[in-house]
Amino acid sequence: MSAAEDRTLYYGKDDVYIYRTFVPPLYASSQIPESPFVRRSNVVFGVNVRVCVGGEAFLPSFTEGDNSMVVATDSMKNFLQRHMATYQGITIDGFLSFVGERLLTTYPQMSWVELYATQVPFDPVDVPSPNGFTESGLVFRRSRNECATASVKMVRGERGEPVVVDHWSGITDLQLIKVVGNSFVGFVRDEYTTLPEDPNRPLFVFLNMRWRYNNPADALLPDPTAYVPAEQIRDIACTVFHETATVSIQNLIYRIGCAVLRRFPHLAEIRFESQNRTWDTVVESIPESPGKVYTEPRPPYGFQGLSITREDVVSAPSA
Ligand SMILES: O=c1[nH]c(=O)c2[nH]c(=O)[nH]c2[nH]1
Q: For binding 5-hydroxyisourate, which residues are annotated in this chain's numbering (predicted)?
């Protein structure tokens, strides 16, 4: 790598929204015990993409104001949007690798390209039919819940051909509350400690997860037979949370990670970023009810990060 490529030098476009209708559905390649997920309809395939490119050829645009090699970020936006029409696959990851490959093939001045996308999810709505309720197929509800993510980095191989060097699938902004059955005790008590031990707290966590495959082709080929839909990872997280008497968020994310890697042996690693958003209690007891009253926690908030690989799974507890 040359000195120019070693330095931070990139440009691109963010918040490139693209919606394509009637992409063929994505089916789960296998049914798993933790999830009822069968298929993502893809009737509305929505993504918000960030494209970022770099290369020595762009240095003069910074140092000399020479735009002769500059592909306008406005053109990048058009490139992404128009290529959505010719994408033959059914996943966000596949779209990113398709368009990344096309960018490097079209513009020799680009040495590398990084693409990141979050899904813009639209959920099917059910409407009355003679046999009860069925999916409308026409009307969809914009979901403000968690969404799938993907990122792909491509460089040039020895003959200049595009090569994927980094690929992650993910899910962002999964927000889960477990109302009872969580403790947090046994932590350091010293002159700075005011938090009481809590044998049974409600636990509200925000989770970002991303995972990579042993073989990225499992996810990136047009017909990805070993693709793991984000919905199944989400449902494993929910199941582990449900089944575990949690002792901390640290231990919860470790258990979720091990469960995911155990369920999908072709995944190499999963990474977590979690936040503790547990509510503050306002009313401790309500007569003749197991309930309490809570409010938003006061800032600041705590967070955790963890990466789990196959080596961890060998030694992990299975429950
Ligand atoms: O699950 C938790 N982990 C912590 O490290 C921590 N710290 C804290 O104040 N509450 C919590 N909860």
A: 73-74, 184, 201, 250, 276
